[in-house]
Amino acid sequence: MTMTERATALNTPPVPVPTAITEFFWEGVRSGELRILRCQACEYFVHYPRPLCNKCGSTDLAPERVSGRAIVYSYTWAVQAFHPYFKDRVPYNVAVVELVEQAGLRMTTNIVDCPPEALRTGMEVQVVFRQVGPELVLPLFRPAPVGTPVSASNEEKR
Questions:
Q1: For residue range 114-147, what is the model confidence (pLDDT) as tens digits?
Q2: Which residues face 95 on adjacent strands?
Q3: What is the spatial distance between Cα 31 and Cα 27, in angstroms, rounded to a whole number?
Q4: Strands 106-109 and 136-143
Q5: Is 119 exposed, middle or buried (0-12, 13-18, 19+ CB in 10 A)?
């Protein structure tokens, strides 16, 4: 690895390569919208993006903007860097959040703007879009402001 490559690796996170089936997601993130595929036959949300509904098997899926409100389902702390970019950023959290639109609709992310001791499962969070590299915006989550009704849907939809 040359000095230039090393400097780039230290300052740039790994960048996902959008595919035909994920381009809508990354385009939405770049424009500040969280978009999830939704089955047009049974209205089930499908995430991670794939070509057919895992509930009814339909291939009639379309991206739909979701609220970005969620509950922390699970989290852990990474203490070892898997890429040079993360070397000076450990420890950091890796969380799974459940979006309020549908029970079981989960995505992996990081919780930001939250002291480590305050992070807990069941915490109400909302999406925030952060530019983390020259060509990479990520949907991260932060604690929801007090008084924001985040959890009103999942228990009702189970």
A1: 999 999 999 999 999 999 988 899 999 999 988 7
A2: 75, 109
A3: 6
A4: unpaired
A5: middle
**What is the pTM for the complete model shown?**
0.87
Tokens of 61: 């899926």
**What residues does CATH 2.40.50 cover in the chain?**
67-158
Tokens for 132, please give them: 């983390």
- The model's pLDDT over 78-114, given as tens digits with 9 standing for 90+, comes to 999 988 888 999 999 999 999 999 999 999 999 999 9
H/E stretch holding 99 reads: strand 92-99
Asked if omega into 48 is within 30° of 0 (cis), the reply is: yes
User: Which CATH code fits 67-158?
Assistant: 2.40.50
